[in-house]
Design a protein that fits this description.
Blueprint (H helix, E strand, L loop, with lengths): L23 H8 L7 E2 L11 H8 L15 H11 L6 E4 L1 H13 L5 E6 L4 H8 L3 E6 L9 H11 L3 E5 L11 H8 L5 E5 L3 H6 L17 E6 L12 E4 L2 H10 L7 H11 L2 H24 L3 E2 L6 E5 L3 H10 L2 E2 L1 E2 L9 E4 L3 H15 L1
Parallel strand pairs: 1-11, 3-4, 3-5, 5-6, 6-7
Antiparallel strand pairs: 2-8, 7-8, 9-10, 10-13, 12-13
Bound molecules: pyridoxal-5'-phosphate (PLP).
């Protein structure tokens, strides 16, 4: 008998894991640059540094509080999120980033052999978590990155496959387009399955002037709709790891029972309360980032790239040669997202960061694409 302990795990065969991002230090070493030359345009994090309330909250935090466990009920945190999201605190399920909540939803809804419908291209974790749960991923690819799958087709696939779970990412990563609420309803209304709308980029779309995209407003009429949000992107807390799920009233108690008791650390809770303390400062930053997003998209178009009409804090574009452009940028310490295979092959994605960082990227693009 083999003595490989892998055989003892539930999944002992190959698993599709999330591709690990190289660290700044690894990228700097491979480009022969000092660490501080590296700027990450590949992770859709918040340009311009922490929101003012985050620094303030951290300064006034007493690390002595970390000796004790935090509040199991996340009362302050849920109240603060509830205020910005416009939802009752008990319907909020905090977690260690949206990623943890993708796992929570997936394992709560789907098990071995169940179908999970994932319109692609999208955030890879929906499929990764379905695979780890032993579920069957039914990918529904776009015919072109700019063309969202028709809602009727998504619904028909869910019904045909008897899927228990389906994902809608709005605005979608990596294409940036948002799904109007009537399309979400056409997918979810009366469906015998859970539909999760990932809205971790919603604040940017709102700052760009989009209205009527908030899927929380659907939950009363469609109690099979869950909404996933994060403080990683729009609130600048990617490294602190905090996201939240908004569930309909009828599922609040059950999700409260299923979540990890203290996935959000007390230190992260302090940072989150700081980030959420000044909605006007957050909105101002989102507006500034989206002005930069337009500037970056316009510059790319001016340089002959095909650019998707996106509402997230990033521009997705097709240059004449994605591989050589990405490596030219990397030599300058500027890291953009590549899609080596699949439907996005040939496209790149770059985060719109603060004005000075954007300027550096645009200058380099001009040099390389001229
Ligand atoms: C669409 C989408 N959902 C979820 C996440 C994960 O967010 P978090 O950092 O809160 O886990 C990301 C991160 O890139 C994302 O793009």
């Amino acid at each position: 008998m083999s003595d490989d302990p892998l055989r003892l795990l539930r999944l002992s065969g190959e698993v599709d894991a999330y591709p690990l991002e190289p660290s700044d230090a690894e990228l700097a070493a491979s480009a022969g640059l000092p660490d501080e030359r590296i700027v990450r345009y590949d992770l859709n994090t918040l340009g311009g540094g922490p929101l003012p309330g985050v620094r303030e909250a951290w300064r006034s935090w007493d690390p002595g509080r970390a000796v004790e466990y935090g509040d199991l009920g996340y009362r302050d945190l849920r109240a603060a999120i509830g205020r910005v999201a416009g939802v009752a605190p008990e319907r909020i399920v905090p977690g260690a980033g949206a990623d943890e909540l993708i796992r929570l939803v997936t394992t709560s809804v789907a098990g071995p052999g169940d179908a999970v419908v994932v319109p692609t291209p999208t955030f890879p974790m929906f499929a990764v978590e379905a695979g780890l749960a032993g579920a069957r991923v039914v990918a529904l690819p776009r015919v072109h990155p700019a063309e969202r799958q028709p809602a009727a087709g998504i619904r028909a696939t869910i019904e045909r496959e008897g899927a228990r779970l389906a994902w809608v990412c709005s605005p979608n990563n990596p294409t940036g387009d948002a799904t109007p609420l009537d399309e979400v309803m056409a997918i979810a209304d009366g469906l015998e399955a859970i539909v999760v709308v990932d809205q971790v980029y919603l604040e940017f779309a709102t700052a760009a002037g989009a209205i009527g995209l908030d899927a929380i407003t659907l939950q009363e009429a469609a109690p099979n709709v869950l909404v996933l949000r994060s403080l990683a992107k729009a609130y600048g807390l990617a490294g602190a790891r905090i996201g939240y799920l908004v569930v309909p009233e009828a599922l609040a108690g059950r999700f409260d029972a299923m979540r990890l008791p203290l996935a959000v650390s007390i230190a992260t809770e302090v940072l989150a309360l700081g980030a959420l303390s000044d909605p006007a400062a957050a909105a101002e930053r989102h507006a500034a980032i989206m002005r930069e997003q337009r500037r970056l998209a316009d510059a790319l178009r001016g340089l002959g790239c095909e650019v998707l009409d996106g509402q997230g804090n990033f521009a997705t574009f097709r240059p004449p040669d994605a591989r050589s452009l990405a490596s030219g940028l990397m030599q300058r310490g500027l890291v953009v997202r590549e899609f080596p295979t699949g439907p996005m092959a040939g496209w790149l994605r770059a985060t719109a960061r603060a004005a000075d960082e954007n300027e550096r990227l645009i200058d380099a693009l001009r040099e390389l694409l001229a």
